[in-house]
């Protein structure tokens, strides 16, 4: 039985409400959609993220928190399109301010889910979100690639002890799908970290300039759902840097603080 059929049966039995506030007969009501345009900026070292900040659509609280939990943990996949739209608005604004044009290909790298989460949920929310986000950004003339290059190591799990600073400093590293990165960035990026780390501008010719690279001057973004301590995003960026891929920006749906 297909998911859509199951969803249809579920709807007939219990008509759905807003994922954020439970208002009846809508996926995400207008008021809750507006909550996703209350952008939050958190400072990160520019040595880590070229733009020196992580950008989020909203704070992780109230209806936004409820909608994300409903989407991620209860498989409410109808909400994905609204989250993709909210992220697209934030990213397009950031690209405009930063001066990134459609001449720069965009690379979206979703933060990985743990193997146990993938097993329990039966889907990979961030990949689905990035796929829809890529379609939206493409409609604005950008060439967009979704690159699922990061995987959690077997047996690793989110750190929940220690202070925020301690957790960030002990950020995880992730397994790298070298074939995916090699396809986009070329073999040289994967054996010479300094090649890309010296590049702070998306239009710098040194970024992705390997003759074997598919992309020229790509603008690389890590995308995650929630930023709590920042340790997941930091772990993603460090792992990519170790593979020679610079990260220009990081975006999340929500941020716990900022
Ligand atoms: Zn609502």
Write the layout of secondary structure elements.
Layout: H1 3-13, H2 30-35, E1 40-43, E2 53-59, H3 62-73, H4 80-98, E3 106-110, H5 115-121, H6 125-138, E4 144-146, E5 150-151, H7 164-169, E6 175-176, H8 178-185, H9 187-191, H10 193-197, E7 219-227, H11 231-242, E8 249-255
Parallel strand pairs: 2-8, 3-4, 3-7, 7-8
Antiparallel strand pairs: 1-2, 5-6
Helix pairs in contact: 4-6
Bound molecules: zinc ion.
What class, by secondary structure content? alpha/beta
CATH topology value: Rossmann fold
Strand content: 15-25%
Radius of gyration, in Å, reads 18 Å
Named CATH architecture: 3-Layer(aba) Sandwich
List cofactors, ions and other ligands: zinc ion
Give, in spatial order, the strands making up the sheet with the most strands: 1-2-8-7-3-4
Beta-strand segment tally? 8
Task: Give the ordered list of helices and strands.
Answer: HHEEHHEHHEEHEHHHEHE
Count of the domains: 1
In helices, the fraction of residues equals: 40-55%
Distance between the first and last residues' Cα: 43 Å
Mean pLDDT: 82
